[in-house]
Design brief:
The protein is an alpha/beta fold. It has a single domain, classed as TIM Barrel (Alpha-Beta Barrel), CATH 3.20.20. It has 12 helices and 8 strands. It has an 8-stranded parallel β-barrel, surrounded by 6 helices. The longest helix is centred in the C-terminal third of the chain and has 18 residues.
């Protein structure tokens, strides 16, 4: 595929719920236009920020179909499919009309803590059955295991349709090692909003962002400027955004970003258990940090 389609800013989109914790399709439709009008390069549906683990099989299909219908080809859509049962996530590929997606973002297996060889074989088996390009998602803070750079690079060189990695290890040295030794056209995307700017300086290709749910133009413009080596201009967006980003993960994601979006009038401050809205104290701190439009 043309990997340039997935350079720049992708949003790990939220799933808005109404006050009864039902999917709020009216708000989702407005948000899709808001994100695209904000000039982001692509959307990622059914990721961690979308609360995919509390959506049932039918809801996942309905949301994916709704998003791709409303996007109507204006930007690429990446679908999140991942888990710790290799056979089961391969079977999930049959649940969606994959002709509507550009790629698959697949989180590294969690909880059962496989070895590096197990992670390699998991992705190799999944990619073999997947008709779309696959992006590895490394997020040790959630999975309990780190995809080492040697494993990422091994997959990048060995498996043709593994075309990139979303790196959320927070380990700059590790990510720079991947950037330096990756094959041509292998994407390295930041998985941490706060360090996206320095990663762009190191040669990363973009980001799959949380904060861009609320500030699509500001964050994607920062990334575009950084991609052009215009870092003085990029920093003018980075530091105001950083003040917001620093509060987003204090009580978990997507509780933080939904609090931001609620205060901006973009959606209800509603999550599904076991997640709950942020505390009143954090809600006030978030309000004080917001960039008002």
């Amino acid at each position: 595929m043309n990997t340039s389609l997935l350079k720049g800013t992708g949003i790990a989109i939220i799933t808005p719920f109404d006050q009864n914790q039902q999917v709020d399709y009216k708000s989702l439709e407005k948000l899709i236009d808001y994100w695209i009008d904000g000039k982001v390069e692509f959307l990622v549906v059914m990721g961690t920020t979308g609360e995919s683990v509390v959506l049932d099989k039918q809801e996942k299909k309905q949301i994916f179909d709704f998003v791709t219908c409303k996007v109507a080809g204006r930007v690429p859509v990446v679908l999140g499919i991942g888990g710790n049962n290799t056979k089961e996530i391969i079977a999930q590929l049959n649940d969606f009309d994959l002709d509507k997606a550009t790629g698959i973002l697949s989180v590294s297996p969690y909880y059962n803590k496989p070895t590096q060889e197990g992670i390699y074989q998991h992705y190799k088996a999944f990619a073999k059955e997947c008709p779309l390009p696959v992006i590895i998602y490394n997020v040790p803070g959630r999975t309990g295991s780190n995809v080492l750079p040697e494993t990422t690079l091994r997959l990048a060189h060995d498996v043709e349709n593994i075309i990139g990695v979303k790196e959320a290890s927070g380990n700059m040295e590790q990510i720079m090692h991947i950037i330096h030794h990756r094959p041509d056209n292998f994407l390295v995307l930041s998985g941490d909003d706060a360090i996206t700017l320095p990663l762009m300086a190191a040669g990363a290709d973009g980001v799959i962002s949380v904060v861009a749910n609320a500030y699509p133009f500001e964050f994607s413009e920062m990334v575009r400027l950084a991609a052009k080596d215009q870092f003085t201009k990029a920093r003018k967006y980075h530091y105001p955004l950083l003040s917001v980003i620093q509060h987003l993960f204090v009580e978990g994601n997507p509780a933080g970003i939904k609090a931001v979006m609620h205060q901006l009038g973009l959606c209800e401050n509603s999550l599904r258990l076991p997640l709950t809205p942020v505390s009143e104290a954090l809600y006030k701190k978030i309000a004080a940090s917001l960039i008002r439009k």
